[in-house]
Amino acid sequence: MMNAAVLNNDVEPAAQTEQLADTMLKQVFDLLRSHNIIPNDVQEQMLTSHLRAMAHRSVTGEPLPEVDASLFDEISPESMQLAREVVAQFGNLPDEESWLLSVHFEVAKENL
Q: How far is residue 110's CA from residue 39's CA, in Å, rounded to a whole number?
C-alpha cells in the first residue's frame, strides 16, 4: 500500500502531514515489531520526530540537504532494507531518506 501524500486543495498541508505521519508511524512500529526491533523510549521519540519530518517533506516537497552516502557504509543490509521499505511507502521521497532512517533501525537493533 502506498501512502504517498497527494495534495488535496481542500485540506491544509499541516493536516495532511499529520495524517500521513500518523499512518506511517503505525506502519513503521508494526514493521519493527515484526522484526523483533523494539526501540526504547528515547529512540521511539527520535524516530517519531524523524518520521513526522519525512511526512512534512513528502507533503511539501521540501528537499533534504545533501547527504554523503559513505557515512552509512556500516549500516546493516537488514536495517537499510527496512528503511527502504518505509521510504517506498511514502512514494515520493528520495533514497537518501532511507540512509537517514536506517540509523534509527540500526541503533534500535542494539537493544536486543
A: 9
Domains detected in the chain? 13-61+68-109 (1.10.1790.10)
The residue whose grid cell reads 528503511 is 83
C-alpha cell at position 64 = 533534504
pTM of the entire structure? 0.89
Cα(22)–Cα(28) distance, integer angstroms = 10
- Contact present, 105 and 32 (Cβ < 8 Å): yes
Angle between helices 96-109 and 41-60 in degrees, nearest 10: 170
Instruction: Provide the percentage of residues in the chain whose pLDDT is more than 90.
Output: 88
pLDDT above 70 as % of the chain: 90
Which residues have a Cβ under 8 Å from the Cβ of 61 and sit 6 or more positions away? 92
